[in-house]
Each structure stands twice: as structure tokens, then as C-alpha cells.
Amino acid sequence: MTRKITVGIDVGTYSTKVVVSEYIKEESRSAIVGTGLAESEGLRRGYIVNFDEAVKSIKKAISEAERSSRVKIKRAYISMGGISLESLIAHGTAIVSRADGEVTELDVKKALEESEKNLGDPKNKKILHSVPVRFKIDGEEVMGRPTGLRGLKLEVKTLFIICLEQHYEDLIEAVESAGVEVADVIASPIAAGLISLSKKQRNVGCILVNIGSETVSIVVYENDTPISLDVFPIGSADITNDMALGLKIAPE
After folding, report:
1. How far is CA 151 from CA 101, 115, 154, 198, in A?
2. What is the CA radius of gyration of the chain?
3. Which of 30, 34, 117, 182 could bridge across to 68 with cysteines, CB 3.0–4.6 Å?
């Protein structure tokens, strides 16, 4: 029987992590069947500065995951962080196309496309995710999905999660150079939010802070939707180095 295997790879500044999961149909759940961990080399503040060293770290983590899971890894989803990751807000509008005023998926798509155009042209940036935060019909806020409701004008407030295009391309090239096809890329704070937070927590509103080695990422949730995201160029290594300097001892 064909096994339903999913692989995730997170290339961090301190470590590169790989997790292999298998979907168990009889139990309607996924189970982790193997993991791999390697010290990261060639990264600074979450982005690649030495390509060959980064590839070597990825290969080592993949090899360890293959041994523990007994699965040959060919394809994976990539988690991406780094200081180039940020969020921007843009608004878009669309005139409802149907004569009876009913909002359709096409109207929603047009409004989202308009919000992307209004984002402008962020130089050297790539859009990772576009998340509709709020809809309005004829100036009144919509609680839930707008499709099926009636009105003349649809408005949308959209959160765009973007990153440096060069960083994105380098990460994909590094993973592919390690012999793994990239299925998709997800912003690491969003991936962490899906695992670390319950749906109830994301609904009532919360902030998820991830303190890494050289970066701190923050993502804000409200109504089960990310409404803000940012990454700061400071992390636990900076705290360690400051303490070592103040106490006049070696960082180790």
C-alpha cells in the first residue's frame, strides 16, 4: 500500500530540523515517524550567507531523518524565517458583478487582486501569503464569509506576508541542492502558530513569540486569523554574548 508521507524542513540559524509524518487513514490522524537535527552552518539572522555550508547542514539533517523514519525523502515543505520576513496591510474593492447583487467567489478574487495591486511594488520582495483579514459590503463589516450576501461594493483588508526574494530563492536552491524537491514554502511564524496555538487561542486573540538564536519572530492572531507579523534581528545568542561580556567569561 502507498504510504501518505509528509516532510517538513526548518532551516534556522542555530539548527536545521526535519520532521517526517505519516497519515494513518484508519485513525484519521498523522503520526511523526522520524526526525532529523543538525547544527546549522552558513546562516546569519535566518538567511544564507554561505551556500555550501548551508547545503551541508540540510543534507545532514535529512540523512538523520531518513535513518530514523526509514523513509527516502524526496519532497518537503519548507518553513522560512529570517529578518527579511514582514507583513504589510493593503485594501481592495470590487463592484459586485451579478445583477441581483449577490457576492460571488469571482468578486472576492477581484477584491483580493485589487488589494495586491494597491500594495505597490515592494522592491526585491516576494509575497509568501495573502490573508483576508476583514470584508465589508457597502461599508458594513461582514461577520464571516461574504459570498452569498448581497450588496453593490465589496471591500477587503488583506495581510500580505512578504520576504526578500533573494532569501527565498537561496533557501529553495539550498534544499534542492540537498536532493529534495520543494513542495511549498510557509512563513515559520505561521507554521508555529498552527502547531503551538489552539484554535480557541487564535480565535480569542493572542501573540506568539518565538525567541530563536539570532532572531525573534512575533505573530498576532485575532478571530483565527493572523493580523500582524514581524521578525527582529536579536535573539538568545545576543543575550548569551552580552552576559559573557558583562561577566568577563567565555560564551561557552
Report:
1. 5, 19, 7, 35
2. 21
3. 34
Q: Which residues, 6 or more positions from 194, have their beta carbon under 8 angstroms from its beta carbon?
A: none
Gap between the Cα atoms of 80 and 115, Å rounded: 24
- At residue 220, the pLDDT reads 97
Cα(242)–Cα(76) distance, rounded to whole angstroms?
37
Question: Distance between CA atoms of 88 and 99, rounded to whole angstroms?
Answer: 34
Chain Cα centroid distance, residue 177: 21
- Please write the tens of the pLDDT for every residue from 135-154: 999 999 998 889 999 999 99
Say what the pLDDT of residue 25 is: 86
The structure's pTM equals 0.87
> What is the pLDDT, as a whole number, of residue 1?
59
User: What domains appear along the chain, each with residue ranges and CATH number?
Assistant: 5-83+165-197 (3.30.420.40), 86-162 (3.30.1490.110)
Cα of first residue to Cα of last residue in the chain, in angstroms, is 49
